[in-house]
Amino acid sequence: MDDALQRLLDAELEAERLVTQALEERERITREALEEARLAEERLEARLPDLRESFLEKARQRVEQSRAELALRYEERARELRAMAEEAREEAVAAAVELLLDAGADE
């Protein structure tokens, strides 16, 4: 019976040792995970200025491209309007000349 009790006691001590070891391992893994997360956050914080600058540069490029496209469309429309105005002026001059010639022929 003493042998059985001793084995049970030994088994209980071994179980406690394993539990303690597992708890220590869990604590170590938790600390490592927290440290890795902290380092990852620091790396991200360090990269933020570069990321922000990259984003701003891309935004500037898009703005410049949009501005250039708008300027091109504006210039095209201005040419069209000038051509239309010139055509209307020529038609007005022709109509005025025709009216003057018709008025001179009636006299």
Q: What would you note in describing this structure?
A:
The protein has 107 residues and is mainly alpha-helical. It has one domain. 98% of the residues lie in helices and 0% in strands. It has one helix spanning 2-106.
Distance N to C terminus: 150 Å
What composes the largest sheet?
A: none
Please identify the structural class as seen in this structure: mainly alpha
User: Which regions contain 5 or more consecutive residues with pLDDT less than 50?
Assistant: none
**Radius of gyration, rounded?**
45 Å
**Residue share in β-strands:** under 5%
Q: Which overall shape is indicated by the principal axes computed on the Cα atoms?
A: rod-shaped
Mean pLDDT figure: 94
DSSP helix count?
1
Topology:
Blueprint: H1 2-106
Give a concise summary.
With 107 residues, the chain is an all-alpha fold.
Features:
1 helix, 98% helix
